[in-house]
Design a protein that fits this description.
By secondary structure, the protein is an alpha/beta fold. The chain has a domain at 43-131: 2-Layer Sandwich (Nucleotidyltransferase, domain 5). It is built from three helices and six strands; from the N terminus they run H-E-E-E-E-H-E-H-E. It has helices at residues 16-33, 82-95, 111-123; strands spanning 43-45, 63-67, 73-75, 78-80, 100-105, 128-131. A hairpin with a 5-residue loop joins strand 2 and strand 3. Helix 2 (82-95) packs parallel to helix 3 (111-123). The longest helix has 18 residues, at 16-33. The termini are far apart. 10% of the residues are buried.
Length: 139
């Protein structure tokens, strides 16, 4: 009778140094790829849906600027140049530090005109900016 003698296998060992290296690489990868939250100078308030709350009677009216599809600025339904708008905005912001600026741009208005309004608002230190939108069409 022959007895088979099996060699005992060595128990596997875990190399901790390699695991620490992998952990450090993962940590560096996560730190490099993480995006940091940037604080914007203006608070942009957009309506969320057709069920959004309507403005109350006790709220003061925002300073509204409109832009049509041709890129013409309007204050109180009167066409103005960018410089006229900017000077009026600076004047009103100096009187009222809590001034709310509302942009009412048509859907095909040049985006550069909207950006210029935002820049003027940042220059005037406007903290609240509202963009008007239309309710979605019902099917």
């Amino acid at each position: 009778m022959r007895f088979v003698i099996h060699k005992r296998r060595n128990t596997p060992t875990i190399i901790i140094v390699a695991l620490v290296d992998v952990l450090i690489v993962l940590l560096i990868f996560l730190m490099v790829t993480t995006t940091f939250k940037q604080q914007s100078a203006l608070k942009l308030t957009l309506p969320e849906s057709s069920q959004a709350k309507k403005s109350g009677a006790n709220e003061k009216q925002p300073f509204t600027v409109s832009i049509d599809n041709n890129g013409i600025y309007y204050l109180e339904k009167l066409p103005v140049t960018y410089e006229q708008f900017r000077s009026e905005l600076l004047k009103r912001a100096a009187k009222d530090p809590q001034l709310v600026l509302a942009i009412n741009a048509e859907d095909k208005a040049p985006w550069g005109k909207v950006v210029k309004i935002r820049d003027a608002a940042a220059e005037a230190k406007i903290k609240s900016l509202v963009a008007y939108t239309k309710e979605p069409a019902k099917p």
